[in-house]
Amino acid sequence: MQPYYRPRRLREKEVIRDLCAETLLDYKKLIMPYFVIEGSHIDQPIESMPGVRRLSIDNLIRTLEADSAVGVRSIILFGIPHHKDEKASGAYDDNGIVQKACQEIKKHFGSTILIITDVCLCEYTSHGHCGMVIGGCIDNDSTLDLLAKTAVSHAQAGADVVAPSDMMDGRIEAIRTALDEAGFTHVPILSYAAKYASAFYGPFRDAAGSAPQFGDRRSYQMDFRNAREALKEVYLDIEEGADIVMVKPALAYLDIISLVRQSVEVPVCAYNVSGEYSMVKAASTLGFGDEARLVREIMTAIFRAGADMVISYHTVDILKNKWFD
Ligand code: PBG
Prior knowledge:
By secondary structure, the protein is α/β, with parallel strands linked by helices. The longest helix has 17 residues, at about 140-155. The chain is built from eleven helices and twelve strands. The site of ligand PBG has 10 residues, from helix 6.
């Protein structure tokens, strides 16, 4: 008995496989993160994230020259300040590290690089939490004003898009209102809407020196057992004025990306986070997997799940090595 249905006909030759492919990879959909640190001539490798570095502004500009030449178009900035305090002063200082970096990048690259800034307090607070600490708790409402000030100062410095990652309630409305009042009605908000309390952020906290000094982030970041709650967060953020919503992390949350994609009309961003990146690096260093193939498959899965854009530390490797071609 011969089979009548033969799906393999469409898999036989590369050209027909390409014609039938449902998901195509496009470098224009990628966003590369950078860690920018106070000082000059600084270029520190981050042990837990092979290939990623903390760069002072001079070196960041040099790196962006090379990276934009291979095709990096969109970036997200994380700041590492000199000084941390209870009030996260460095986050909304007009002379803060991210603000200075935005100004320099705009000076050198104009509109050829789209700058997204991460709006959060955790890199600037002495305790490492994403909000103000009052009586040992992370206080929601007193944090909103500081986040709004941070977003406005980023926009003033030249940020094209602001991306709040703190997970306080009501922050999108607070930020939208403050941006509009300051005349930045044109600056979009990319909201880290469904951000889970995840062990996959470990290497990032090492990179940014932002690990909480007490407790953890489970009173504000989402419980990874929940999917419906992600929709609640996404709907609220859209209602408050989010232009793009994010799901984070990506790889262990493909179901959430897919759910969000099917539920809302706004663009969906996925964050392929530090721990996901470092796992691939570790596996390929140990010879347990081929880096190019792993990255291509992971990226395809994130886009197939429904992401319109992906933040990934693999971006520069993908471009330099032409892994998407
Ligand atoms: C700041 C922030 C974090 C990440 C992005 N923005 C860390 C955290 O919430 O602890 C994680 C990014 C990554 O792991 O790559 N709140």
